[in-house]
Amino acid sequence: KYETQSDLKSYQWTNRNNLLFSYDKTTGGKTGYTPLAGRILVSSASENDMNICIVTLDKNSYLYDYHEETYKDIFKNYKKYNILDKNNFYLENIDDPIYLKNSFSMTLTSHEYKNIEIKTKINKKIKNNIYGKVFVYFKDEIIYEDNKKEKIQKDSACRYVNVCKTACGYD
Q1: Which of 169, 163, 166 is nearest to 93 (CA)?
Q2: Rounded to 5, what percent of the chain is helix, strand, coil?
Q3: pLDDT tens-digit map of 81-98
Q4: Cα–Cα distances in Å, from 14 out to 11, 18, 32, 44, 62?
Q5: Given the DSSP bridges, would you call strands 116-127 and 104-108 parallel, antiparallel or unpaired?
C-alpha cells in the first residue's frame, strides 16, 4: 500500500503486480485491462547483464506465474554474448587492432551462438575515412554491420577475410 499527499488531497493505492514481490529478478512491470485485450501484464527482469521484457494479453489468471517461469527458462538457456568488442577486435594475420564504431552483443543459446560468423570487407579505396566493414552473420544472413575506422593491411589475394573463430570462443 502506498500513500502520498498534496496540498489539496491525500492519495492511496495498492500495487497489484504480484511479480514485483514474488520474483527477485523483476525490475518493473505494469498491469492493465481493456475489454478487447483482456488482462495485460508487461514486465521486465534482469540477470547477468541480460534485460528481458515480456508482454502478455488475456493469458489467464496465472499471468505472474507465466512471466516468472518464462524468465527462469530464458535465464537458464540463454546467455548474452559479446560478438564484437570495439576495444579488442583483430583480424587473422594482422597484428594491430581494428577500431570499430560500436560493440555488438546478442542474447543467444549456445547452439545459436555456433551459427554466428564474422566477416570483413576491405575497401579498395578509402572513402570518408572508412577502410572497410565488418559483418555479423547468423545462418548466412547479415544481422549487423559496422564500419572499420582504422586503416588495415589489404590481403593481396582477396578482399574478404574471415575472422579467426578462436577470437569468438567457438574454435
Answers
A1: 163
A2: 15, 45, 40
A3: 999 988 887 766 666 566
A4: 11, 11, 14, 20, 19
A5: unpaired
